[in-house]
Design a protein that fits this description.
Number of strands: 0
Helix content: 40-55%
Distance between the termini: 107 Å
Largest sheet: none
Order of helices and strands: HHHHHHHHHHHHH
Radius of gyration: 30 Å
Shape: extended
Length: 329
C-alpha cells in the first residue's frame, strides 16, 4: 500500500506543471508536491534549494572532468533530465538554470561527428527549441545544414510537426518526404507518422496564403562568402541589372556627381575566394547560433550609472494666453 500514488496531490498542481513529450513520473511528482506529514517535518524552500544546489554541484564536478569520460554526452543528458524533474513548474526560469545548461550542452558537441546522429543529442536540441528558441524554423535549418539528426526520424517528425502547427503544410510534407528519402530510422514509425499527416493534409482547410518557399532554404553565394570565409563563390554570368558607368565621347564619364547615392550589390561583383568546397554542396552557413543573450544584445540598453547623467527636459510650456478684451471702436 505504500507504493500507491495519491493522484489528488498532482491534481492540485497540474496547471503549474510543464508537460514533456516523454511524460513525467507520477511518483516523482507526488513526492515533490506532497504535503508534510505528521511524522516527518516539512521541507522548507531553503532546504530544497540547498539540496538542488548540492546535486547541481555534483554534476558540475563531473563536467570539469568530462575529458576523462568515455561518454561525455551522458553527463549532460543526465544533468538536463535531473533539471527537468527537479523543477517541474519552473523550467523556463533563471532558478532552474535550464537555458544556459542547454546552450552549453548543444554547443559542446556540435562539431563531434559521432554524436550528430545520437538521439540523446538531438533531444537536447529539441528541448532547447521547445522552451527557449526565438526562431524555431531557423534553428531546425541550422541542424539540417550541420547534419545533426540527419539519419533520425525524430528530427523530421518534430520539424514537420512545427511546420504543420505554423500552417506550412506543403513544407511539412516536403520534410517528411526528405526523411523517407534519406531512410531515417526508425523508418516504420516515420512512414506511419507521414500517413497520419497525409490524412490531416487532405482534411485541412485550404489556405491561399500558405508560403511556397522550400522548408530548408538555400544560402545565397554572396551571403555564404560573408558567413563562411572558406567558401568559394561560384562564377555567375554578368548581372544585366548591375550598374554600368555611362561614358561620353572618348570614353569620358558623363556622371556629374562625384559620390554614388546608392550602391547596388551584384553576385557577379563578389570577389572570388580560395576555398576548395563548392558553395551549393556543403556550405553550412552559421558555425554557431550563439546564446539567446548574444542574439538579443542589440535590443538591450547598456547599463550605466546614473551619477553625472542629465535628463533631457521637454520644451518649456508657456502659461495660458491672456484673455482678449473686446472694445468698441
Amino acid at each position: 500500500m505504500e507504493d500507491l500514488i495519491n493522484f489528488d496531490i498532482i491534481e492540485g498542481h497540474k496547471e503549474n506543471i510543464q508537460s514533456l513529450p516523454g511524460g513525467r513520473s507520477a511518483k516523482a511528482l507526488a513526492s515533490t508536491f506532497a504535503p508534510p506529514s505528521l511524522l516527518s517535518p516539512a521541507p522548507t524552500l531553503s532546504n530544497t534549494r540547498t539540496l538542488n544546489d548540492a546535486i547541481r554541484q555534483e554534476y558540475e564536478l563531473e563536467l570539469i572532468a568530462i575529458s576523462d569520460s568515455d561518454d561525455p554526452l551522458d553527463i549532460y543528458d543526465r544533468y538536463v533530465k535531473w533539471t527537468l524533474n527537479a523543477y517541474p513548474s519552473a523550467q523556463a526560469t533563471p532558478e532552474s538554470q535550464l537555458r544556459p545548461l542547454l546552450e552549453r550542452a548543444t554547443k559542446a558537441f556540435q562539431s563531434t561527428s559521432h554524436y550528430k546522429n545520437d538521439p540523446r543529442y538531438l533531444k537536447l536540441w529539441l528541448t532547447y527549441i521547445r522552451f527557449f528558441s526565438d526562431a524555431p524554423r531557423e534553428t531546425f535549418a541550422y541542424l539540417a545544414r550541420h547534419s545533426i539528426g540527419e539519419s533520425l526520424a525524430l528530427f523530421y517528425e518534430e520539424f514537420a510537426a512545427w511546420l504543420e502547427g505554423a500552417g506550412r503544410w506543403t513544407q511539412a510534407e516536403e520534410v517528411y518526404k526528405l526523411g523517407i528519402e534519406r531512410e531515417a530510422r526508425p523508418t516504420e514509425r516515420l512512414l506511419r507518422k507521414f500517413g497520419e499527416f497525409q490524412h490531416r493534409f487532405e482534411q485541412r482547410p485550404h489556405n491561399g496564403d500558405e508560403p511556397s518557399s522550400p522548408a530548408l532554404p538555400t544560402i545565397r553565394p554572396a551571403l555564404v562568402a560573408k558567413m563562411d570565409p572558406f567558401a568559394v563563390s561560384t562564377p555567375r554570368p554578368a548581372d544585366p541589372q548591375a550598374q554600368r558607368q555611362p561614358s561620353g565621347i572618348g570614353g569620358a564619364s558623363t556622371s556629374r556627381g562625384a559620390r554614388q547615392k546608392l550602391a547596388i550589390f551584384s553576385d557577379a561583383d563578389a570577389p572570388p575566394s580560395t576555398a576548395k568546397t563548392p558553395v551549393g554542396e556543403t556550405s553550412k552557413g552559421w558555425e554557431n547560433i550563439g546564446s539567446l543573450e548574444e542574439r538579443k544584445k542589440e535590443n538591450i540598453i547598456e547599463v550605466r550609472p546614473w551619477a553625472g547623467e542629465t535628463l533631457k527636459a521637454g520644451k518649456k510650456v508657456g502659461g495660458p494666453p491672456k484673455m482678449m478684451i473686446f472694445k468698441d471702436e
